[in-house]
Amino acid sequence: MSSNIRITRICQFCSQEFTAKTTKTKFCSLKCSSKNYKLITRHNIVDVSNKETEGIRLLDFEAVKKRDYLSINNCVQFFGISRRTLYRMITRNDVETVKLGRRKFVSTKSIEALFVINEPVDVKPAQEPQIIDLNECCTITQAQAFYGISQTGLYFLIKKHSIRKFTSGKFTYVQRKDLDIYLKSIDHE
Ligand SMILES: [Zn+2]
Description:
Order of helices and strands: EEHHHEHHEEHEHHEEH
Helix content: 25-40%
Number of helices: 9
Strand order of the largest sheet: 3-5-4
Structural class: alpha+beta
Strand content: 15-25%
Bound molecules: zinc ion
């Protein structure tokens, strides 16, 4: 594979610009890729990024998970990693593979294990009526940066947990304490 190609892309998880080595790379780092995967499994999102990517067929995660082995293509699409990263993982025996004919398949469990991060406890938000202080809130854009979550992921979370949104001027706000229940702020490296 040519290493002369340098493509500037936006990480589909943290929205930061990064230099991609292939046109298929969607995340700036394995960390973002992991966080994205965690979100997909936790909220059963089919695939946030694939929906936005032309020509890539949607993968039903529930169906995929039931398979013991995944094709190289499925791994690349589903975990949002580059082929190169995947082959590196295979070479290092980070994942288990089987060979069927000339094609290699990756054990679902073994690759999944690499992407699962310790899960926070799911706590329900308090529903008591309250006075909203905008200083305790953040805009959708701020929340994305602060928690390292994609816009799609954030809206999904808001919808799923009925997190209240407020509009002031032209901005939409959410309370940080509502998001803190589900998200951890990222350390900005
Ligand atoms: Zn990123």
